[in-house]
Amino acid sequence: MNYKSLREWINILENADMLKHVKKEVSLEYEIAAIGKIACGKYALIFDNPKGSNIPVVTGLTGSREMLSKALNVPVPELASYFEKAQSNPGGYKLIHKSESPVKEVITKDVNLHNLPIPIHHEKDSGQYITSGLVVAKNPETGERNVSIHRLQVTDKNHLGILLLPRHLMHFQRLAEDKNQPLEIAIVIGLDPVVMLASQALTPLGQDEFCIASALYGNPIELVKCETVDIEVPAHAEIVLEGLILPNIRKPEGPFGEYPKYYGPQGDREYIEIRCMTTRKNPIYQTIVPATDEHLLLGAVPREGGILQIVKNAVPTVSAVHLTPGGTGRYHLVIQMEKKNEGEAKNAIFAAFGSSQEVKHIVVVDKDVDIFNPIEVNWAIATRCQASEDVFIIKDACGNKLDPSSKNGVSDKMGIDATIPLSSPKEKFEKIRIPNEENINLEQYIE
Asked: What's this model's pTM, rounded to 2 decimal places?
């Protein structure tokens, strides 16, 4: 890639007329979120004058698959396969000195989070939330690094609430807490799309997401040591918050408007103490408006890459997968395959369910169906599926706790085989076509 920082990515978008400036004063309370939501997918925004702060705010930097295509320099249909290859062949990283690291230009030990332009996004959110912060931590037993995004509620000048789901960071926190020890973390804000995407990879325990970022870049990512915790962070970030998840302390966190477009409820959750902040001299604050296309795509594309890797191992004739926007980029999956044997579609479904507990409904289609076109997928279900033979339901599987229809994360799953039966005569399912239709330019015929 020809960039390695948020600022360089902003310049690329601006030169491509994919980013607009909002120069008038805007409120951190709802207004930035509302404007960002409306613009998301059309163009990215930079708010030059957020009320009460001289730090600009950016959002919508990856609000469409076209933006991600530009970010990774691959066609839209190849995003998942490109990510899959990077995840299968991670790179290394380069540790550089703090004197070479822009994020070390200003070091603050007396941290006041209220000095950052952190928005309030939704009507019933319990306060300001950091939504684009990458949480970096290490396994207390092995030292292996993990990178992930979590919602972070500002509770006072140097404390945050965090929602931990049963994934790697929770596992690390529990290992430390079992020994009555805090877990060191760093929260990184203001990064380019490559690192953001890598942080969302479906990885086995021990695989370093920063090394996936290196593979996506085509060059080793540059990291720098933190000041107060034994953690490395991207050297070209805008802001880094260093701190601890405190052991055996739970405080109210939430509600918060989440990606399924419902509020995640309040609960007593883990508590973070921030002890140091490092920034650029004139930092840029990055926010992701929850439940927008930017939020969904940052989760969907990496998950597609991880799912594709696992499903292809089970069924090599699978060619592509798509987590649909209507399924919140998590719950609904479409698999495209060239079926060679009956039963392969069901095997692909089983593999996909095993690859991600969030996936809830899966449709398998043939290669002549555009998996990014919901009309074609629905057409395949309508014309190639018989419910009594091709639909099956798995009761009471492990799902996602943010799915409000689940029973505290216990969810039913459904698979639909919408592929053509191999025993059917070929002509029975031949798609109609008009010769030369694809070459017609309607403008040449209309006066």
From this structure: 0.91
